[in-house]
Write a structure and sequence with these properties.
Elements (H helix, E strand, L loop, with lengths): L2 H14 L5 H11 L5 H14 L1 H30 L4 H4 L18 H16 L4 H17 L5 H23 L4 H5 L6
Helix pairs in contact: 2-7, 3-4, 4-6, 4-8, 6-7, 6-8, 7-8
Length: 188
C-alpha cells in the first residue's frame, strides 16, 4: 500500500468510525440522494427560464450540458479506466446505511456532478459561490460519511467537476449569437 493509499484509508476510517448520531445519518442520506432535489431543481429551472433573464437561461443551459458531460464521464469513462473498488468492498464498515454499490469508486460521480454544477452557478451568479460550494462539499462529505467512497474519490470527482463546469461556461460564452438567444444580460 502506498503512502497515498494509506492516507486515503486513514481519512476514510477517521470519518467512518467517528460517532454517527441518527439525525446526522438521516441528513446525510437525504443530501446524498439526488432524487430528493429533482422537484426543487425543476421548479428553479422553470423560474430561471421564464424570469431569470439571460443569465438565468444561461445557467439552466450550462447546468444541463454540464451534468450531461460529467455523469457519463465519471460513471463510465473514468471509473472504467481506474477500476478502483469501493471501500465497502474491501472491509465491512460498521456504518453502511445505504449498502454498497457494485460500481467502481474513483471518482465519486456525485462529487463530479455537484462540483460541476457549483462551479457553473458560481461563474454565472458569483454571489452564490459560497453556498454552491458549501452544498457541493456537504454532498461530497456525505459519500464518505455513508461509507461508499474514499476521501480521494470525492476530491478527484470535485476536481473533474470543477474543470468541466469551468470549461462548459467558457465554451458557451464563446458561441456567437448565444447572447441574443438567451437575452441581453446573458452571463458575462
Amino acid at each position: 500500500m502506498t503512502s497515498f493509499q494509506s492516507l486515503d484509508l486513514s481519512l476514510y476510517h477517521l470519518v467512518l468510525y467517528a460517532p454517527h448520531p441518527d439525525w446526522l445519518t438521516r441528513a446525510m442520506i437525504f443530501v446524498t440522494r439526488p432524487e430528493n432535489f429533482f422537484l426543487a431543481i425543476g421548479v428553479s429551472a422553470f423560474f430561471l427560464i421564464l424570469w431569470g433573464g439571460g443569465r438565468g437561461r444561461f445557467l439552466v443551459l450550462s447546468a444541463g450540458i454540464g451534468v450531461a458531460i460529467t455523469d457519463p464521464l465519471a460513471s463510465q469513462v473514468i471509473k472504467g479506466i481506474f477500476q478502483r473498488p469501493r471501500p465497502c468492498h474491501g472491509e465491512l464498515p460498521v456504518h453502511l446505511p445505504l449498502g454498497c454499490s457494485d460500481s467502481w469508486s474513483f471518482p465519486s460521480s456525485h462529487a463530479t456532478n455537484i462540483f460541476c454544477e457549483a462551479t457553473i452557478v458560481s461563474l454565472v451568479f458569483p454571489r452564490a459561490t459560497p453556498w454552491a460550494y458549501l452544498f457541493a462539499s456537504l454532498v461530497g462529505y456525505s459519500r464518505i460519511y455513508l461509507g461508499v467512497h474514499y476521501p480521494f474519490d470525492v476530491l478527484g470527482g470535485a476536481g473533474v467537476g470543477v474543470l468541466v463546469g469551468w470549461g462548459v461556461v467558457r465554451l458557451l460564452r464563446k458561441i456567437p449569437g448565444l447572447g441574443r438567444f438567451l437575452g441581453k444580460d446573458q452571463a458575462r
